[in-house]
Amino acid sequence: MKVIQIIDSLNAGGAERVAVNIANELADNDIESFICTTRKEGILKDNIRSNVKYLFLSKKGRFDIMAIKTLRLYIKTHKIDIIHAHSSSFFIAILVKLFQPKLKVIWHDHYGNSEFLNERPIKILKLVSKKFNHILAVNTILKSWAELNLNVKNVSYIPNFVDINLNEEGDTKLSGNNSKRIVCLANLRPQKDHITLLNAIKKVFDQFSDWSLHLIGKDFSDEYSKELKTIMKKLNLDENVYIYGSRKDIYKILLQCDIGVLSSKSEGLPLSLLEYGLAKLPVIVTDVGQCKEVISSNKLGRIVEANNEDVLSEAIIKLIKDRELMRTLGNNLYSHISKQFGKDSIVKSIIKIYKEVLC
């Protein structure tokens, strides 16, 4: 069995990290594993293990003939059986399949705005979905949506998984006081709703001015980024809120923090939440996507209403006031994630689907 993961970039996003994680784990399970990034390389390239073969296409547009030919020849030369296409990379996968009909295509749906699926463009996706052999969805909402809207019989819910990388590069030193750091691991995108988080954190800092907030994730330097920085200045948060951009040493960063927060308007099953758990952080997350599947009780963390700065600030303040609760929640979540979202069982499920597709 030979499998290639295809992803548009290697920026530090959720879909990108899943693609790299799967490629690495397949190689460690004696499957010849490949990964192709179509448009951009990025910070996650260094996370690809040496036993995974790598291809970069530098694709310039949807119908980049040279990129399509390069991928087609690469797949033919290496006798690859399965294309595992992540997010929007399904399009080039289907174009290659048109020339090599025996290829199996599995599409992995990571759509982050699963709370707003009525706004999702569907025309092209529905048309090409006839060529998919299987769909993997990162949450049950997306699974149900695919079953209702796309032309595929086989759809499976496969939760995301994370793994601690003790050999990750980088040595980021966080600012602020030790034992008084809140972290939000999320690219600076509107769906992550850092605006509500900043308004909530202002209320927290009015009571606990020695605490700090650390935003880890790609800064696209766009209008949303500018708006966040304007709000920071308006709320006088410049000395307590720090923006770091993308970082390679996520686990090392999380070990320097005390509370993990996600304030998203929409999610799938966020890798950040799983990573918080593996770092034994107590977490506060909004009730979107599959977050409640992970934080299934108050013994594991706190679920709050999205887009509500008051309930978010109250939840953070309650944790700050109770160190023992913070430790208990962090330890409980670590145990839960290790058992329910461990890589071994999830990778076995993916490999089983590969085998079924090839039958």
Automatic annotation (TrEMBL):
CDD domains the UniProt entry points to: GT4_PimA-like
Designated name of the protein: Glycosyltransferase family 4 protein
Cited InterPro entries: Glyco_trans_1, Glyco_trans_4-like_N
Pfam families in the record: Glyco_transf_4 (PF13439), Glycos_transf_1 (PF00534)
Organism superkingdom: Bacteria
The Glycosyltransferase subfamily 4-like N-terminal domain, residue ranges: 13-165
Segments forming domain Glycosyl transferase family: 176-334
